[in-house]
């Protein structure tokens, strides 16, 4: 199993496995190592009897800013392997028989947003926000969000988030039904601890059966969505627009898309 400082792993009292993204200097953007380590830990938790609940969160000011596309020629380094890693994480979250709680302490963007919204419970601090930022760099949503967001808040709002890349505040996300819980920044840690404790004391077999049944009823299009997103992103990654989008991101300017 991959060991990396990018992901902090702690099994706390109550059989709660805390997986904390630990790249605060880049707002916990997902590196290749972080993605692989996260997927492995989630897959291991599914079969580990010592784990009753999994918690995903971030260090510092962000949950996760998404994939790490910093640096020159990012479009040449970012390829289908990143998509496969993201899909592996989403399948591990939704397929885990244990409850997975996302404690969103700050911005959740791109694949960070995808990961949070795949969780069973999403607890948002008041200062958190949710952003499908893909359109800003010439890409389409991935990580299953073309299915999970629409399933949670409907087609119209999903289109607004995806096409306009508009962030939702934590309050807006809660009001829309995108997240399950909302707390002030001060009350956020205590609420997370309370929910983790309640989940850890729950009936494991009933929790697994409930999660499987609800996901089967509401996420019927998740697997096809992951495959469609993979195909679409693979094509888009070869375009001029994506290269321009990633250059513009690193140069902190507005991109000039040409539809090529």
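Sequence proposed for the structure above (260 residues):
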């Amino acid at each position: 199993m991959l060991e990396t400082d990018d992901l902090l792993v702690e099994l706390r009292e109550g059989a709660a496995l805390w997986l904390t993204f630990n790249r605060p200097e880049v707002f916990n953007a997902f590196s290749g190592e972080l993605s692989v380590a996260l997927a492995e830990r989630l897959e291991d938790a599914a079969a580990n009897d010592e784990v009753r609940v999994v918690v995903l969160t971030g260090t510092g000011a962000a949950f996760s800013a998404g994939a790490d596309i910093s640096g020159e020629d990012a479009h040449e380094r970012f390829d289908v392997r990143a998509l496969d890693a993201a899909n592996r994480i989403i399948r591990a979250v939704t397929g885990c028989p244990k409850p997975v709680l996302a404690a969103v302490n700050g911005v959740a963007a791109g694949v960070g947003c995808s990961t949070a919204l795949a969780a069973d419970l999403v607890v948002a601090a008041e200062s958190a926000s949710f952003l499908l930022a893909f359109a800003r760099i010439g890409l389409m949503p991935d990580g299953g969000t073309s299915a999970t967001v629409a399933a949670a808040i409907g087609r119209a709002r999903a289109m607004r988030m995806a096409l306009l890349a508009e962030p939702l505040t934590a309050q807006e996300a809660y009001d829309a039904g995108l997240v399950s819980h909302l707390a002030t920044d001060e009350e956020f840690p205590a609420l997370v601890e309370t929910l983790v404790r309640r989940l850890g004391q729950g009936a494991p077999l009933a929790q697994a059966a409930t999660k499987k049944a609800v996901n089967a009823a509401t996420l019927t299009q998740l697997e096809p969505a992951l495959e469609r997103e993979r195909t679409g992103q693979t094509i888009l990654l070869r375009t001029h627009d994506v290269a321009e989008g990633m250059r513009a991101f690193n140069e902190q300017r507005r991109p000039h898309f040409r539809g090529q």
